[in-house]
Design brief:
The protein is an alpha+beta fold. It is built from 5 helices and 8 strands. The protein has helices at about 5-50, 50-60, 80-85, 135, 195-200, and strands at about 70, 100-110, 115-130, 150, 150-170, 175-190, 210, 215-220. Strands 1, 2, 3, 4, 5 and 6 form a 6-stranded mixed β-sheet that branches. The longest helix has about 45 residues, at about 5-50. The radius of gyration is 23 Å and the shape is elongated.
C-alpha cells in the first residue's frame, strides 16, 4: 500500500494553490481586457450617436483625477478635467449629418498589478453632412464633395486614424485616463487621399472639431499647453509611414507612451 508522507502532501497542496492563483489571475486579466475593450467600444458607439455627455459621465475618469489628458492634433494638449471634457460638451446633432467611425485591430495590455491598461485601435469611417450656402462660401473648396441637396452644399469624407488610450481602474471600474488621436488620412468621397493631402497637408494642425448645425464650423477649445513630444505626421506625399503609436507590450509599472 502506497502512502503519502506529510511533506509530499504539503508540496502538492502548495502546487495546487499556486495553479489556482495563476488561473484566477489569468481569468481576472482576461476579464479586465474585455472590460477595457468595452469601455472604448462604448466610446465609439456614443460618439457616433452624438451621446458625448454619456462619454463624460460613464467613460472618462472622475473630476480631480491626477494626470488626465487628451490630444487631437499637433497644436497642444488638454490637461484638466474641464478642458478634456469640454470637447464633448454641447456637441450638436445636425439634421442630415452622418458620423460613422468603426475601430479594429486592438492591442490591449493590462498592467501586472491590474490597476492601469494601455490600448491602441485603428479607425476607419465616414463623416458627411449638409452646409448652408452662405457658410459654404467660406469653406475651402476641397472640403466639399460637389453638388447640393435641398439647396445645401454636400460634404462627405472618408477618414482614417489611430487611437492610443490609457485606462485606469477607479472603484472597480475601468475609465479613460489619457486619450490620443492620430490622424492618418482623409479625403472627400469623390477624391483620393493623395491629391487631398496635397491640398490639405496641415489638416492635423487644424483646430476644427466638427461641422455643426447647417455646417457651421465648431472649433476645439483652447489648449492648456504645448505637446511635449515630437509631432505626429499623417499621410503626406513626401514622407514615409512610421509605427506611431507603438503597440503596447506587457508591462509592470505604468509608463506614459502615448504622449
Amino acid at each position: 500500500m502506497t502512502t503519502i508522507d506529510d511533506t509530499t502532501l504539503v508540496e502538492r497542496l502548495a502546487a495546487l494553490e499556486a495553479r489556482a492563483d495563476a488561473a484566477e489571475l489569468a481569468a481576472t486579466r482576461a476579464a479586465d481586457r474585455g472590460a477595457v475593450e468595452n469601455v472604448f467600444n462604448r466610446y465609439m458607439h456614443y460618439h457616433n450617436a452624438y451621446q458625448d455627455e454619456r462619454i463624460i459621465d460613464e467613460l472618462w475618469v472622475k473630476p480631480g483625477t491626477e494626470g488626465i489628458r487628451s490630444r487631437y492634433n499637433n497644436v497642444g494638449e488638454y490637461t484638466t478635467y474641464e478642458s478634456v471634457t469640454a470637447y464633448h460638451r454641447g456637441r450638436p446633432k445636425p439634421v442630415g449629418k452622418l458620423l460613422f467611425h468603426y475601430t479594429t485591430t486592438p492591442v490591449v495590455e493590462i498592467s501586472a498589478d491590474g490597476t492601469t491598461a494601455k490600448g491602441i485601435w485603428i479607425m476607419a469611417g465616414l463623416e458627411s453632412g449638409l452646409m448652408d450656402p452662405e457658410i459654404a462660401k467660406n469653406v475651402p473648396a476641397y472640403v466639399l464633395s460637389g453638388g447640393e441637396v435641398d439647396g445645401k452644399a454636400v460634404w462627405a469624407h472618408w477618414v482614417w486614424c489611430k487611437y492610443g488610450v490609457d485606462f485606469i481602474k477607479q472603484d472597480g471600474e475601468w475609465r479613460i485616463w489619457h486619450f490620443r488621436c492620430y490622424e492618418v488620412a482623409r479625403a472627400p468621397f469623390n477624391r483620393d487621399w493623395i491629391r487631398f493631402a496635397e491640398d490639405n497637408q496641415h489638416s492635423h494642425d487644424s483646430q476644427l472639431a466638427w461641422f455643426g448645425d447647417d455646417g457651421v464650423p465648431v472649433f476645439l477649445p483652447t489648449v492648456d499647453g504645448p505637446i511635449v513630444t515630437e509631432n505626429h505626421t499623417p499621410y503626406s506625399n513626401d514622407t514615409a509611414q512610421t509605427l506611431d503609436p507603438e503597440p503596447p507590450m506587457p508591462y509592470g509599472d505604468f509608463e506614459d507612451t502615448f504622449r
